[in-house]
Amino acid sequence: MKKHHQILANGKVLLVALALCVTTMPMVSANMVEAESIMQSSDLKMVKGVVTDESALPLVGVTVQVKGNVNRGTITDVNGNFSLNCAVGEILVFSYIGYKSESVKITSAGQAIKLTMKEDSQTLSDVIVVGYGVQKKETLTGSVSSINNENIAVTKTGNVANNLVGRISGLTVNSRSGNPGEESTEITIRGLSTLGNHSPLYVIDGIANRDGFERLTAEDIESVSVLKDASAAIYGAQAANGVILVTTKRGKEGKPAISYNGTVSFTQPTRRPHLMNAEEYLTWVDEQNFRNGRPMEYQDVIAAYRNGTVDTSVWGNTDWWSEAIDKWSIEQQHNITLRGGNDKFKYYISGQYLDQDAIYKSQDYGYKQYNGRGNFDVQLSRNLKVGVDFSYRVGEVKSPTLSASDLIRQVFVSAPYDFPYYEDGTLHKTTTGNPIPLADGSSGNKSTKKTRLESKFSARWNLPFITKGLYMSGYFAYDYYTTYRKDLSNPYDIYTLDASTGKYVNNRDETGTTSLFQQFDHTTNKTVNLMLGYDRTFGNHRVSGFVAYEQYQHEYEFFSASRKNLVTPQLPYLFTGADEGQQNTGSGEKSARANFFGRLNYDYAGKYLAEFTLRCDGSANFAKGKRWGWFPGLSLGWRISEESFFNKNLFDNLKLRASWGMLGNDRVANFQYLQFYNLDSGNTSYVFGEKKILSKGLTPGIYPNVNITWETAQKYNLGIDFGLRSSMLTGSVEYFYERRSDILTPRNASVPVFTGLTLPDENIGKVSNQGVEVTLNHFNKIGTVNYNAGVNFSFAKSKIIYMDEAADTPEWQRRTNHPVDYLMVYKSDGFFQSQEEIDNYPHFADAKVGDVKFVDVNDDKVINGDDRIILSNSSTPKITYGITLGAEWKGFGINILLQGQGMAKTIFNPWDLNQDREYFVNRWTETNTNAKYPAAFDMSSSNIQYISDIWVKDVSFLRVKNVELSYRFEKQMLKKLGLQDLRLSVTGNNLFFIYDNVGFRDPESTDAVGWYYPQQRLITCGLNLTF
User: Fold this and answer.
1) Strand, coil or helix: what is 839?
2) How far apart are CA 860 and CA 810, in angstroms?
3) What is the predicted pLDDT for the residue at 73?
4) Other Cβ atoms within 10 Å of 36 Cβ, number
5) Predicted local confidence at residue 982, as pLDDT
6) Within a domain: residue 961?
7) DSSP string of 246-277?
8) Where is the TonB-dependent receptor plug domain (predicted)?
9) Which H helix or E strand runs over 122?
10) How high is the pLDDT of residue 184?
């Protein structure tokens, strides 16, 4: 069943009351006199009916109006029923927020009407969640983008951040890896604007600083709003990087509806590494040997590989990736929800189970998650409403003892001429380390279990007895998080063959001892909010606003311990380990914030719009006298389309808006205004007493700075919102500019190294950022086919205005006037083609024919660090865009999402022993002098030790991010099955690239050498049903 916007659920009582007031208001106009005379006519007969949604659930508060007569109408009751006196030939118009308006002509006296209203995805987005409230999109003056559940849930992944990719202008979501439960996802809003932390602030159900956004259940989310300009100023010192507001679903009036949503996905890497085979690997090694003056010792073996005569008992040809990594893994999600209520009590209850298998051969590794949520609203009296929200989550990652990057590295470095097993299946100890026991659990495993309990108790008290439109509200939120980690390392059996005896020798003693590491931490967050608000209309004037106080407290504590030489792996407890070598440690932290803030909105006739916000923040991160700051915001809007002189032949809606705001960023290391001391041992230990006991000593840390405070951002935004006639094409165009100042960064670069000083952060950095955003959406119908198309485009470019740099830094290496995120590499000019060319050109001492020809940028006849240059593009794309296409016909549906990025570069370079075949096939040789990469090299080579632009890749791409094919059963069939809704779907995520410039690796990865858990492609079968 399609889900409604939260406002639809929360506002039904208010809508019913408002509609009753409107329809029962005493009228004194001539139209009322006419209406009364009509009502007395014998031609009017009672018409009754019921209005439901597409899942056959009653709709409460639907406006039923006689067309052409504003004085005759009613609304539906809690069961969706209505009755109204009508004459034959009259037309009834049915309207409801979030649904397409419907018209029904009265054809007979006493006609019974049964109407099903269809949701309107355009109208659903007309109400936008903003900071501490909601606003109509048509009167919104800030830059706020929103996405509803229908668009979020269409992507079937375990990480909800991936569901936002390509769907919101200005929001960049890059998936750097696909490790289950630990996916590395980078999210930024409008690029980078600071030298420090650039993560946005997450606000979940009104509570700031709630992390864990990525692990939310997509089915629980009602909407996600992104605040990009002065609209974020209401969050003050934490909002400089933008704000992401997440609103979960709530109950709604109507009969209880039980919904089940289940998916099963088959996953595989979007691109797996293809390493050199044995022949290529030995060819590479011998070419290294030749180039370094060593004997080419493998020529006979290489020839044997080529002609098929190699001795397979000695020489293998192993694809180590396939030995350690599965081709496919399984992911499944199961969600069940219960939703309903009446005018007194509404509820939303959900549960989720998520199971993601890892790609390793062992089936015990992966991520399991259990989510439970309950959101309840109780109308205690006409003016008093309370809410109680709970959510509980348990997530556990089980993985090999090595990190994903270390395990993938072991796959890379394993020589392909080795074989994993002897002929009888005995595990082979290879020359470079066999990765199989590291991947299948033989060497041990580790688990990380995280639990999250989040709660919120809220109330709203309307105060009409004081004055109409006045209200008080508040909430208390208590969140408790824990993490328990347990790493168990085991020795394992691995063998070599003793040629003299013909027997296997177990090398278990060389694989370490049984050891155990355990860690536990817990976090407590408390938030209190009190608000006094006002919202009232006086003729054409609407005034609304609030003042509020909020307080936040954070506490964190952790400890860890480890022991070696456990008695047995079957007793994985610390007490079974040896005392010798045991370790333990712990730490903790506390922080707090206090905030006073408010907002004032003015709306004249829906044409002239203004909003002013002001927030005063206090943060314990800074010293007394530096803790408090003021953060104002102002935005204006003019709906030109509402002016009497405006011709609506082309535009239904045209709005100009502008905003300015000052925001802050206090996400820095705590207590930098205090002197820190390091509790050390070893060289800083002291001897006390007659027994000369060695005791730990204190050494001073970074020198404190009592003057630090938050960095500030001034944001400017100009925007145009438009909608062509009949809303066939809607969109917006925006220009934004931001100047960030007081960025915390040290002056270390300008202090001579010989001083040995490590200086504290100071508020000295300055950065600017500017760009444009475009959003277009088209909805239409051809015959019985409904279709839609949309595009969003963002461009953002940052520039460092000031940062501390050494006085002798070459001009071409100064970061000032360059983007925040940058690459500094040596400039290349192809490869050396002869010894003569080497002798007549500056070069590193080890330069050989076929090596990179480094450019002497400063023309001093020496190649060194001063010859590096800054590249303006980096792994953070300046351009991001998304294209959506969809169609629906008689229950069949298709939705397509294309994701792209541009003006982005990153470094991909080989390292260690085996490499991607890309570097072998395209290496320099005497017969391939116009190559992409240098000749075969070892790890000490200047080719690799000094990174040049040879290894820089343009990571622009356009990929088919998501395709969904679906079928929703017709109501006649549903009635036979006893269901309200049944929908089947097949979805593909990360399907393929339309174009990219890398080819052998996923361009969203930023791991230079390829030692990362690859992003995943998913093929998903889904079932949605509602009872």
Assistant:
1) helix
2) 13
3) 85
4) 11
5) 95
6) no
7) EEE----SEEEEEEEEEEEEEEEESS---B--
8) 137-243
9) helix 121-124
10) 81
Give the C-alpha separation, 644 to 423, whole Å. Answer: 88
Same domain, 96 and 158: no
Same domain as 127, residue 111: no
Q: Do both 23 and 84 map to the same domain?
A: yes
> What gap in Å lies between CA 853 and CA 943, rounded to an integer?
9
Residue 336 exposed, middle or buried by CB count within 10 Å (0-12, 13-18, 19+): middle
Domain total in the chain:
2
Boundary of a domain, candidates 118, 151, 168: 118
CB burial class (10 A; 0-12, 13-18, 19+) of residue 283?
A: buried
One domain, residues 138 and 27: no
Count other Cβ atoms within 10 Å, centred on residue 229.
31
Q: 586-625 pLDDT, tens per residue?
A: 999 999 999 999 999 999 999 999 999 999 999 888 888 8
Percent helix, percent strand, percent coil in the chain, to nearest 5: 15, 45, 40
**Cβ count within 10 A of residue 581:** 12
At 42 the pLDDT is 52
The mean per-residue pLDDT over the stretch 527-532 comes to 98
CB 513 within 8 A of CB 562: no
Beta strands at 879-889 and 892-902: parallel, antiparallel or unpaired: antiparallel
CA–CA distance, 926 with 920 (Å, rounded to integer): 14
Q: What CATH number is associated with residue 60?
A: 2.60.40.1120
Angle at CA of residue 144, ends 142 and 145, nearest 5°: 155
Assess whether 94 and 145 both reside in one domain.
Answer: no
| Nearest alpha carbon to residue 777 among 848, 724, 832 | 724
Output the pLDDT for position 884. 97
Distances (CA, A) of 911 to 774, 826, 853, 938, 944: 41, 18, 19, 9, 8
Contacts of 656 (CB under 8 A, 6+ apart): 637, 638, 640, 719, 720
Tell me which of 59 and 1021 has the higher pLDDT.
1021
- What pLDDT score does 34 carry? 39
Same domain, 163 and 58: no
Residue 871 backbone dihedrals phi, psi, to 5 degrees: -95, 135
CA pair distance 220, 46, nearest whole angstrom: 42
Mean pLDDT over all residues of the chain?
Answer: 89
In contact, 736 and 773? CB cutoff 8 Å:
yes
CA 545 – CA 599 distance, rounded (Å): 5
Is residue 411 within 8 Å of residue 320, measured between CB atoms? yes
Across the range 116-122, mean pLDDT stands at: 73
Please give the helix or strand (H or E) that residue 222 lies within, else none: strand 221-227
639-653 burial code (b ≥16 CB/10 A, e <16): bebbeeeeeeeebeb
686 pLDDT band (50/70/90 cuts)? low
SS3 405: helix
Question: Is residue 59 very low, low, confident or very high in pLDDT (cuts 50, 70, 90)?
Answer: confident
Cβ–Cβ under 8 Å, residues 167 and 151: yes
Q: Amino acid letter at 656?
A: L
Q: Is 51 in the same domain as 103?
A: yes
**Poorest-confidence range of 279-288, 693-702, 882-891?**
693-702
Supply 755's token pair.
């001083």
- Mark which of 199, 230, 250 sits at the end of a domain: 250
Q: Which residues pair with 944 in a beta bridge?
A: none
**Looking at residues 824-834, what average pLDDT do you find?**
96
Give the structural domain span for 209: 123-250
- Residues in the chain, total: 1027
